[in-house]
Structures
1.
Amino acid sequence: MQIYLDHSATTPTRPEAIAAMQAVLTQEWGNPSSLHEWGQRAATIVEQARFQVAGLINATPESIIFTSGGTEADNQAIMGVARLYVVPQHIIISYVEHSAISETVRSLEMWGWEVTRLCVDAKGSVNPLDLKDALRHNTVLVSVIYGQSEVGTVQPIAELGNIARSHGALFHTDAVQAVGRLPINVQKLPVDLLSISSHKLYGPQGAGALYVRPGVELAPLIYGGGQEMGMRSGTQAVPVIAGFGVAAELAAQELPTETPRLIKLRDRLFDLLADVPGLIPTGDRHHRLPHHVSFCLEQADGEKFNGKTLVRQLNLAGIGISAGAACHSGKLSPSPILLAMGYSQKAALGGIRMTLGRDTTEADVDWTAMVLKQVLQRLSPDLSLA
């Protein structure tokens, strides 16, 4: 029995997207910048995908810039703003950002930019009042993740965006984990920049997008032929963009039924594991990504009993999950996200994540809970499991 519960890492490319990619690779392989028929057919495919991706978040098509994925979209948002300024300014992020944001901002600090990192509470949530207090006269950008990939917490994006906007700062959100899983309408949501990734919503790897609100100015990261409205030069990867577009359109169609189905399965898995001593739920149970279940081990250590151990053990049982702690040079490092939320060094070594998808069933959830309990009992016999 094989059960894949790591959909926040990547999702299987859906057949409809693969079919679209195959059609482009075999029939519509022209360069979309060429003026002849072959090129114009490819250009039409790119623009169709732009409409499809825009429709998923209710954006105008011209506000969608295709990228190689969520990481590039995040970098384009941060660096695209920063490169507009000769003199370093001030940026605000949170302590629970994806590394595509945190590392990009760290590089700006080396060039003299000031950075404020907002603390989070025990559920991983940013307090909007902290953002108000952190804003300065030279704050040009605020970036807060929409749904945290490790612990699942959904931030109060609308409130945070309104605060940033009232101050005159641009507001960006990394919505890679949220788009296609939660309804997002950028016509109502106060965001200026929003990052999307294809392979998180059953599209191919290697494609993503940055939504740029009309009127917002950015400097490009990649210079050359001026593709993507001058924002991202280089010949567009037409096959993956086509697959991305199809996946986005289908995600929009399925959102009203798939999101509540995932929430039901998510809550079932939480409930099935609620009686396990030493297994602590992480993140906000209510303001949460619909597909996301996460825990940490209260008595984790850096050797035999930690999140990586559980990943390996469940993999042997045919179940794919992920862990939050990272291994560097053979030494396990605690999750910086859990540390930011106030967990101990030990507990932050024991973070695990189980993320559900289109093919996840109630039987999968029940089997996973049973196997995880058995693994925990074997690894830590002193646990008295009900």
Note: The longest helix spans residues 238-272.
2.
Amino acid sequence: MTHTVPSAQLRAALGLAERGIPVLPLRAGKGPMGNCAACQKNVCGGRPNMQTPGPCTCPRPCHAWAAATTSPAVLKSPLWAGVWRQAAAVAYHPGGAGLTVVDLDHADAVAWARENLPATRTVTTTRGEHWIYQGTMRSVNGVRDGIDIKSTASYARWRGAGTGAMQPLPDAVRALADKAPTVARRAGGTVTVPRPAGGGDCPHRSPVYLERGIAMAEQRITAATSGVHATVYGMFLAVLSAHGRCGCLTGAHIGRLFTAAQAKGESARHCAAAWSNASAALGM
């Protein structure tokens, strides 16, 4: 009988799973992998850039944060064996572990956090730091220049246990998710993307109507296979046209649109520019 020696990534994943941390494999480039041979290159319809599982049955769910598990049997299953041999790194689902990661992507973001957020467990990354808090919240990208929040429905690369005592998730971090996205220019101040102020009564103030519009815009952006810049601008323009003048939009709505665009490769700066251009085109 022959025995297959687990890869370094699988050994690391099993160790984390034993500690109750849901894990998943990452390909080179930090994107999640299809976790079985049938789903390689997402032929099953999964969208790893959106961290979305596909409609596969192999075992379900197959992709991204939704596939993160603490089960050694699943991690060592034959269906996942080939994936682990190709995996470049290990990721984990912070929300599944009861955690929130504030991903600080450069030195300016780290400096801002040190001035504005309570110190907590810190993990050094290739470009900045992960600050880890105990507690969960919704995940939002681009809450400030170089700062993403990863918790529920998201994943973060495992870079070690870090240093320092982990603190409870503070209101200061939760508040970041409720603010309109901002983009800080390295030279020349800060550009803020404000919520449209609106005025008067909303002619169609309905949570269902607004939710349908935001969801449709997210869907269109996610489904774009070419012309992503134009699609993002078009969806921003459509949402602003319908809801920009009556004050329906909140920072959370705008954050969802920015998150969808960034998942397709748009930078926070490009998102802010598209939003500003759409606002200007409508005379806002």
Note: The chain is about 35% helix and 15% strand.
3.
Amino acid sequence: MVSRITTPKQSDAERLKNIIERKLQPMIMRNRTRQDLQQKFMDMVEEYNLGAYNAEELFRRLEEFIHELNVEDKRTVKEGLTEEELAIFDLLLEDVTLSDKERTKVKAIAKMLISNMQDALVIDWRKKQRTKAKIKNLIEEVLDELPEAYDDDLWPKACSEVFMHVYEKYPGQGQSVYVH
């Protein structure tokens, strides 16, 4: 009996699209620097919808994209960081070019921040000015250790970005987007 290789159909591509959407949303929720992946996915679907390529080509591109998502999903292991630490690390790397030694230092700072922050994130911390200020000060103290590449323009931006990340992702009462 001869087996036939079938070409992917629109329904196969649709199934892959749904798998990607289910995988991509939590990844972006945990780490906003992954929004470029969301944009790439949306562009791919839009190009298909505009007739730039057929269902078979869309299927091939979606398969490649799933591979890219899997690589990104495993980056925590590669970087030696938790998902929480990786989100901070990625935020700190956004606008700066660092040497390997400096990157290693920034990883250590991301780990230290997550570790030090756990006790400070009390119930309703976002509602009280004093506890918000305490978190902001903690972030600034830890980020004071950043390499010299974080100059007078970059350091305040990094502090602000990290604080906003913490504010959005850690509502309090031991809750966060990282707790399942």
Note: Helices lie at 10-30, 35-49, 55-73, 75-79, 83-93, 100-120, 129-143, 154-169.
4.
Amino acid sequence: MSEDSEKLAEAAGILDCPGEACSLPGRRAAGEDPAKREQIIEGAKRVFMSVGFDAASMNDITREAGVSKGTIYVYFENKEDLFAALIGRERNRVVQNVKHALDDHEPIDEALFDFGVTLTTHLTADHTIRAMRMVIGVSDRMPQLAQRFFNATPENGYTVLRTYLDRQVERGALDIADTDLAARQFIELSMAGMLKRRLFGEMDAPPSREYIEKTVASGLAVFRAAYGPKAESS
């Protein structure tokens, strides 16, 4: 088969991995091209954000991403799988950002403040709220989607913070008996109900940077008063 014929066949979805192309030097096997996968996820994101999870179709995503139907099914089993991949990608980006904020070389107050602002800004952003509402809307009939949304990866903002707190307790910088509980408390203190207010429409726009910083600073003061080292509290 000629190269032109291969391209036409792949575009039509006839071939997922055309003949000998899988083994040719420089070619990627079907489903292993990260650029193509990213292209599909970006197209899916635009569709999901535009019409929602239920109304989105694989045909819509195929057109928006500019790929063949055959190609999209090489990378993703179905719409649920694609939505989970989108959420996983966004979560990974946030995890990297909050990890960067929790720099062991920075004073604890600065690191926790940066973490709180970064995480709260992401969780209250329009695209995050829309994604959460989509999942909540279908959770009764598609509980597996909600499970993948909240438990797709072992690492998230909460686990990153807990690990950081463990390190600070070990070096004596914080006095915390239960870092699992403390991590959850700090995240709640940083948001002070903003996530729920955004989800249920009481706060119809993302909070301002000034408001987020003020809230996180107040939460940090409470957290430090409770969990500062014993030498500080005495």
Note: Residues 1-27 have pLDDT under 50 and may be disordered.
